[in-house]
Amino acid sequence: MSADDARPGHRIFLVGPMGSGKTTLGRRVADLLELEFVDCDDEIESSTGASINLIFDIEGEAGFRDREARMLECLAQRDNVLVSTGGGAVLLPANRELMSRTGTVVWLKATVDQQIRRLELDRSRPLLQAPDRRKRLEELAAQRDPLYEAVADLAFTSGGRGVPLVAQALAKALREHHD
Ligand SMILES: Nc1ncnc2c1ncn2[C@@H]1O[C@H](COP(=O)(O)OP(=O)(O)O)[C@@H](O)[C@H]1O
Ligand SMILES: O=C(O)C1=C[C@@H](OP(=O)(O)O)[C@@H](O)[C@H](O)C1
Ligand SMILES: [Mg+2]
Q1: Tens of pLDDT along 30-67?
Q2: I need a labelling partner for 114 at 20 to 30 A (CA). Which of 3, 19, 75, 139 fits?
Q3: Residue 153, CB half-sphere, CA atoms under 13 Å: how many?
Q4: What domains, with CATH codes, occur in the chain?
């Protein structure tokens, strides 16, 4: 991002692992920063009329990544927006390049324990349909943490404060980042 673009909330991308709160916190933080909120997965679901699970079933992960990359390209053209991405959006170099070039990228961190607790009942994430969720999440973290790190302008750890307080802290961190 150039210095001229570095205004609060011009375009923010939240990245990070499943269950880090990109969707939940993103919506609140967008409100606090008076930005439009958009969730990449929700956009894919509403534009296809299919759930993420069904897309994975029919087209495989590769098909989903294709749709995700195309959706991100569209979303990166909006202004005054906070975009919550899916946890694997950082996998494609083109996505990383797009997000770094067009916005402020925030890595929402979460421990595997937090992920497991928060996603205990979740059945909507195809990559979590594994017999050993901890192992799966650890493998994903080993693969992806270096990518989150590489693309992020800011890393944010939520701690155990509860969603409303964490959203306020994240909004504050973003304001300070842009000052
Ligand atoms: N900081 C947090 N503290 C407690 N619960 C959280 C936090 N962030 C998210 N959650 C909960 O975890 C679940 C998954 O959050 P979600 O926003 O869908 O994560 P992501 O979009 O990163 O996968 C939701 O039930 C949400 O309420
Ligand atoms: O980590 C991933 O590869 C994925 C994360 C999901 O989004 P959240 O990170 O919002 O759960 C969703 O995009 C899809 O199930 C794949
Ligand atoms: Mg999400």
Answers
A1: 999 999 999 999 999 999 999 999 999 999 999 999 99
A2: 75
A3: 21
A4: 8-173 (3.40.50.300)
ipTM: 0.99
For residues 127 and 140, is the Cβ–Cβ distance under 8 A? Answer: yes
Give dist(CA 67, CA 85) in Å, integer. 12
CB 68 within 8 A of CB 122: no
User: Which pTM value belongs to this model?
Assistant: 0.96
- HSE of 125 in the Cβ direction (CA atoms, 13 Å)? 19
Ligand nearest to the CA of 87: 2
16 is in an annotated binding site: no
- Residue 34 tokens read as 């008076």
Contact residues for 51 (Cβ-Cβ < 8 A; gap 6+): 45, 124
CB contact at 8 A, 167 and 82? no
Q: Is 7 annotated among the ligand-binding residues? A: no
